[in-house]
What we know:
This protein is an alpha/beta fold. Helix content is 46%, strand content 14%. Strand 1 (44-50), helix 3 and strand 2 (75-81) form a beta-alpha-beta unit. Residues 1-26 have low confidence and may be disordered.
Amino acid sequence: xxxxxxxxxCVLFILxxxxxxxxxxxxxxxxxxxxxxxxxxxxxxxxYNWGEYISDGSDGMMDVVAEFESLTxxxxxYTTFDTNEGLYSKLQSGSAxxxxxIPSDYMISRMAxxxxxxxxxxENIPNFEKYVDDVFKNPDYDAANEYSVPYTWGxxxxxxxxxxxTEEVDSWEILWDEQYSGKILMxxxxxxxxxxxxxxLGYSINSEDETEITEAAELLKxxxxxxxxxxxxxxxxxxxxxNAWIAPYYAGDYLTMSETNPDLAFVFPKxxxxxxxxxxxxxxxxxxxxxAEMLINFMCEPTVSAENCGYIGYSTPISAAKDLMDEEMxxxxxxxxxxxILENSETFRNLSDExxxxxDDLWIEVRVGTLTAGFWIAVALLAIGIxxxxxxSMWRKKKRMDARQMK
Length: 407
């Protein structure tokens, strides 16, 4: 009797699981009629996104681009950038065309102010109202929800290798520690780098005070002697292969790197840290705007966001997607930190043109200062060598001409 009851309960459990699965699939079923609108029209969308920032079909996860292409008949040309500032410069120069870009919060505000973004038609993006969590609507960087739809959100913190860094880590100060000289990496973009220095000094990461920013620049110059390299995507190989031991970076990328190297740990520095949102926007002059809005809508499908964020490690702004994700990921305090931890974070604001120029100028000073005396000696010797070679060549040429004249 117990055996029969056990079998009955197992069957009941399996059936209930199937019902729940079917219900979840039905609840988030894609509207195929909506997504068929541009089939057969030979449309290509050009997407510009961060590196390592979309599910590509690895590890059994969804190939997001291929899935969209199959569903809609729209081709996608996908390329990547390293920094918000690099993205801004490229669009401002007019040297490239894109239908969709995915900048960070403060850069969205800057681009909107400079007339570089199209206003979105949310009638073509029904999933924004339907699925995006209210906390991500009407943000400071796009208060009227005119230009952007959130893609992911996340935080910046410290990543370190516990095999080599055995002390307690809780502060940005370790990025200046001489005992780890040559094993420390640093952001190669000015906004993130200055944010760390400003936070360590006790200032706001959005400071526009010239004295505070100059003080932060001096602190970054002091750091240069212990920094192995200034990096963005290069961090993946350097930390995974243990060429470096300590680096500030994004929490989502830490989760990806820790799968390759389980000795890596992550901490939110006590001085404070950046919390950010990366969002989907359409650049001014887009010729396939409605198709671009369709791709934005597709990225807000709970099933797509769940697969995408589950793969890249960043946090989803769609709670319905979290319901479909691995429970361990959703419970991870790095991916989804508690409100108490987030209270110590600060979101980047768009700074004035004067402050942005100051940051750019000082950042050049910091980076140029990383070139050693040996480098400049080598440059000088090379210049002397080239000059000597040119003079010797001129002397030989003159000598040959004099010889011909004597004949």
